[in-house]
Amino acid sequence: MRSVSKIEFERVSLRFPHSSRPAVDSCSFSVESGQFVVILGPSGCGKTTLLKMVNRLVDPTQGQIRLEGKDIRQFPVTALRQRIGYVIQQSGLFPHMTVAQNVSVVPRLLGWAKERIRERVDDLLSLVNLPPHEYRHRYPIQLSGGQQQRVGLARALAGDPGLLLMDEPFGAIDAITRSKLQEEILRLQRQLKKTILFVSHDVEEALRLADQILVMHRGQVAQFDTPFRLLTQPATPFVRELLGADDMVRQLSVLRVETAMAKIPHNHKIQEGAVVKPQESLRRALSVLLRTGAAALTVWEDGRAIGILTLDHIRDLAALEGTPAYEGSA
Amino acid sequence: MSYILNNPGLVWQLTQEHMVMIAITLGIAVVLALPIALLIHQVRWLTVPVMGTLSTLYTVPSLALIILLVPLFGLNARSVIVAMVLYTQVILVRHISVGLHSIKPAILEAAKGMGMNLWQRWWQVQVPLMLPIFLAGLRLSAIVAIAIATIGAKFGAGGLGTLLFDGIAQAGRYDKIWAGSLAVGSLALLVNTALLALEWAARRD
Asked: I want to staple B3 with a disulfide (CB 3.0 to 4.6 A). Which of A43, A293, B42, B175 is the partner?
């Protein structure tokens, strides 16, 4: 039951009384188990409300949300919440509890044995790179913002939930720490295979983290797609503008080398340093091209050259993919 | 001072009477103030009328209030205790509601989102977090009650006020007045210090 966490939204709406338009307007989508989905949109678009519907902090006025095929209203509400990890901006750690006590909240609610809880706390603190012996007994106020957010993440993972809800968790954190935390959440995701719903208003963050991005606009789902497709085939002018689909450098940062490379010509000579891997971004390839001054980069995988990449290849791809879907099918 | 030394038994007995009155008062006052504070915390618009009423009560002179209560509760400690409960409401309700208010909404939302029920949120999150502010209110209430209880002697409630009123009634018994004042003063200081220590213990940061 824990291992799979597929979520489905079916025509979910929320209309507050006395408000002219719904905060969430007939949203339908489904997220497969193990997917990292970023809900992206400007403030007031309903993205946080949408997230809070999953753990029933907000109940929709219409529609149905299913977890593993079952309407979430069929679960007892506290049991549902205990099975869903929840991380909020500025962590929401309990200031009167130590790091260990904070992390053990859900295991205690679940009635785990003391010994098991202690082991779990230490494992989790190690997982988020906070040495347990050093941090276990600290209070949140004795931690930096980044460390607090790590504890927040450990706390959310404590009950081993299949699903993690993250509401702008890195919003109030400086750029360097944020980038490090983003790296780590990706590492954790690869390791733990949780389903993650992650609310953000930061396009770069969304592009960096998401398997799929759900773009929200005025309470509706504007587009739900992979970063690559959002950039290359934005469904509406809003998506195009939000994602900065016209920004070539941004496109290049999500496109991989293998999508643009060409076969190796016979006379190709490998130049020292001018080598990239197929999974690397075109943005990085471009930077290697500029730095080395090479005419062509060698694409290298498993100890052999599998292709070459020139500036022309990159330019051709960028020009080709820039056609938005909404401007007609031609 | 010499009066206290010469009559330790009597002074101790009066001090005990005084403390019992305070303890009963604070017990009832907290039980009453909690639901009121929770109510105005939930129903915001009630704050102004409720706090207004309690503040107005606070401005009625204690002597007058007790006189008004005597026909209802009799010429004994009960009238005095009721008066003290009424006086301390404004302090306790305000402190509890400020305490509840001081908890960041994000923290409560985290508690809710993690699956704590209402009872667990109250005991594990709200109570410990508002405890220092609540204890500050309790301390103030205790001091106010100690002062008002002194007047209680006039209405047959006993307590350290007995010494003061006796001293005034019997011309020239300044020793009794001094003894009473010293005892009340010391009691107030002691209670204040004890509750302050508790308050500091409850503050972690």
From this structure: B175
Q: Could you tell me which residues of chain B have a Cβ less than 8 Å from any Cβ in chain A?
A: 104, 106-107, 109-117, 120, 125, 128-129, 204-205
Partner-chain contact A79 B204, CB within 8 Å: no
Q: What is the ipTM of this complex?
A: 0.78
Distance between CA atoms of B205 and B132, rounded to whole angstroms? 11
Q: How far is CA A294 from CA A267, A287, A305, in A?
A: 15, 11, 16
**How far is B147 from B159, CA to CA, in rounded Å?**
11
Rounded CA-CA distance A68/A240 in Å is: 33
- Looking at beta carbons, which residues of chain A come within 8 Å of B125? 94
Average pLDDT over residues A213-222: 93
pLDDT tens per residue, range A131-158: 999 999 999 999 999 999 999 999 999 9
| Backbone φ and ψ of A325, nearest 5° | -70, -30
- For B107, phi and psi rounded to 5 degrees? -70, -40
* For residue B17, pLDDT beyond 80: yes
Radius of gyration of chain A (CA): 22
Three state DSSP letters for A84-144 = EEEEECCCCCCCCCCHHHHHCHHHHHCCCCHHHHHHHHHHHHHHCCCCHHHHCCCCHHHCC
DSSP helix/strand/coil, B88: helix
Q: Do A105 and B125 touch (CB under 8 A)?
A: no
Distance CA A287, CA A310 (A): 12
Whether the Cβ atoms of residue B160 and residue B183 lie closer than 8 Å to each other: yes
Cα-based torsion angle of the residue sequence A56, A60, A61, A67 in order, rounded to the nearest 10 degrees: -90
Cβ contacts of A201 within 8 Å, gap of 6 or more: A40, A41, A42, A43, A47, A168, A171
Measured distance CA(B38)–CA(A2) in Å, rounded: 38
Beta bridge partners of A276: A299
**DSSP designation for B122:** I
Least confident residue range of A53-67, A152-166, A188-202, B156-170 = B156-170
* A94-143: pLDDT as tens digits: 999 999 999 999 999 999 999 999 999 999 999 999 999 999 999 999 99
Using a cut of 0.90, tell me whether the model's pTM lies above it: no
- Interchain CB distance below 8 Å, B116 and A88: no
Q: Do A95 and B107 touch (CB under 8 A)?
A: yes
CA distance A82 to chain B (A): 5
